[in-house]
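Reader question, answered in our methods column.
A reader sent in the components of a multi-part assembly and asked whether the whole thing could be modeled at once rather than chain by chain. We filled in our standard form and ran it. Here is what they sent:
COMPLEX SIZE: two components
ENTRIES:
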Amino acid sequence: MKLNKLAIAAACLLSAATVMADKKATDTTPAEDLKLYRDYFQKRFPGVSMNEFGNGVYAIDKVSRDSWVAIEDFPPYEPMMEAGETMWNTPFANGKTYGSCFGDDPAQRKNYPYWDSKRKMVITLPLAINECREANGEKPLKYKKGAIADLLAYMAYESRGQQITVEIPDDPDALAAYNEGKSFYFARRGQLNFSCAGCHMESSGMHVRTDILSPELGHTSNWPVYRSKWGELGTLHRRFTGCNKQVRAKPFKAQGREYRNLEFFLSHMNNGIEFNGPSARK
Amino acid sequence: MRKSARFATTTVTLATLFAGAGMLPVVAGAADAETIKMGKEVSYDRKKGNCLACHMMDDGVSPGDIGPPLIAMKARFPDRAKLRAQLWDPQATNPGTRMPPFGKYQILSEAEIDAIVDYLYTL
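And here is the structure of the entire assembly that came back:
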C-alpha cells in the first residue's frame, strides 16, 4: 500500500519536472519567472507562507523544525556574530572603519546583491566588504568561512526583517547575467548529472537517504549559516561549492562570476521574503 | 545583551576482482551468490551506486523516496536489457529523469552494473 503511494507520487512529480527544465533561460522574463516559481512552490507546499520559506527545510518538516527551534533559542552563531561586531567597530590601519564604506550602517542586507551598470557585474555583499578592505589598504578576506562569515553574521543580524527586493534592471547586460544564473540553476552537471533544480525544485520535500531537500524558494535569505556538519559558519557560496561537489562537479570560485550570477537569479526569485540570517542548519 | 533569538563507507572494489577474470556469469538467470552479494554491496555503497539515496529496496536502512521502490523486479522488468539500460542511461528513456547515468558517465563499471542487475532480480 505505502509502496504504491510512493511510486505514484514519484511518477507524478516527473511530469512536473520537465516543465521548467526544458525552457531556455531567455524564454521567460524575470517577472514571469517570479510568478512561475512562487506558484510552483506554493502548490507544492500548500499552507507554507512566502516568508516561512526563508527557514529552509524547517518550513516544510515539522519533526526537524522542533529541534531547530530549540537550537535557535541558544544560537550557536552568537559568538561569531559578536566577533563580527568587533570587526565592524575596529578601525583599519588607516583609522577608517567598515562604516566608512557602508554609510555607517551595518544593516546592509537589503542593498545586495545588485547590478552595477558601470562595471557590468553583480555586486554581492561579501564582494563589497572585500572591496572596502582593499580600498582601505587591507588584505581581502577568504570568501567561504572565517572572518568574513563573522562580519556577515553581524551585518545580517542587524538587517533581520529587511525584505529581499532584487530587481533586474532594464539593461541587456543585467538580463544576460540573470539568465546565466538561471541556466546554471537548471543545467545538469557533474558525474552524477544533477541540476540544482533537480534536487531543490523537482525533489524538494523528498528524502535523499535521511536528508530532506529544502525548496529553492528562500535559499538566499538566511546566510551565513552555522551548520552542525561544518561546526562553524559558512557563506552562501560555500554551500554552492558543497552542492556542486556532491554531484562530483568541479566547484566554481566563491564570488566568481558564475556564483554571483547564480545568487542574482536566486535572490530575484526570493523577492518578498525577509532576510533572517544568520541561521542554524543540520 | 542580544535581542532575543528568532522567535519571540566504505568503497567496495570487488568489481576489479571479477572483471576480466571470467568469473561473471554469462548465462542469464544463472547468477551466482557471490555476484548477487557484490551487486547488493555496490548498490548500497554511498560512493558507488548509492541507490538507497533515492530508492527503497530490500533491507536498506533509511532509504530516500525520490525514485520508486525497487520491488518485484522480475515481474516488472521481464526484459533484462531494459533493466540494464535503465541503470546505464536512464535519460535515454526519460530525458527529465533525476536518476544518474551509471554506465554512460562511468559512475560504475560494466561488471558492477551487471552484478546490480543480477541482484535486482532477487528483489
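What stands out: Strands of chain A lie at 114-116, 121-123, 207-208, 211-212, 225-227, 232-234, 279-281. The CA atoms of residues 155 and 275 of chain A lie 11 Å apart.
Send us your own complexes using the same form.
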